[in-house]
Amino acid sequence: MRPTDPAGFREAWDVIERFWDETVGRARRLDPDLLHESVDGEWSFIETLRHLVFATDSWIRRAMLGDPSPWDPLDLPWDEMPDTPGVPRDRDARPSLDAVLALRRDRMSTVRQVLGGLTDESLAGHTAPVEGPGWPESRSYPVWECLACILNEEWEHRLYVERDLDALEGHTV
Which pLDDT tens digit goes with each residue over 15-45? Predict the structure, then answer.
């Protein structure tokens, strides 16, 4: 998960998508109410997916593609993020797995499109600052850094939910 060229980023994304497909299949075998349950104070499965939508909206749609306000009402920033005008933070929302997965498919498709057009030159480039409040802050970022952030978020959060699914598989609601 530390690619250095466009082909490496595309290959890493293939791995991410394949592993998430397996993880979602595992989650679908649980009682749907369990997907809203926190394990040891961590985000639930659904909240984690909502956070990953937020990460993609922030680093890909805002920072890289220039959308000043890309967030969906179900996006979920990290808990310590200060309230920011226009950025949703509804911790009480309880969307269905299918509703969140529809958002995820859309955002994952956006990442795949960005990676599909990635060249050595664009990977070495920088983003243009996006005006207005939001996350990340309005400044220029190295393109590789935005993409590496998404890979890291996807990889690490999948490990967390796999750990939590282990705990949830023995529970009933």
Answer: 999 999 999 999 999 999 999 999 999 999 9
User: Would you say 35 and 46 are in contact if contact means Cβ atoms under 8 Å apart?
Assistant: yes
Q: Is residue 1 part of a domain?
A: no
The rounded distance, in Å, linking the Cα atoms of 113 and 65 is 11
Judge whether 70 and 62 are in contact, CB under 8 Å: yes
Quick check: 5 and 120 in contact, CB under 8 A?
Answer: yes
Q: Which of 1, 106, 111, 96 is nearest to 45 (CA)?
A: 96
Whole-number Å distance between alpha carbons of 17 and 9: 12
Residue 92, in any domain of the structure: yes
pTM of the model: 0.95
Q: What is the CATH number of the domain that holds 137?
A: 1.20.120.450
Q: In angstroms, rounded to a whole number, what is the distance separating the alpha carbons of residues 27 and 61?
A: 27
**Positions in the chain whose pLDDT score sits under 50:** none
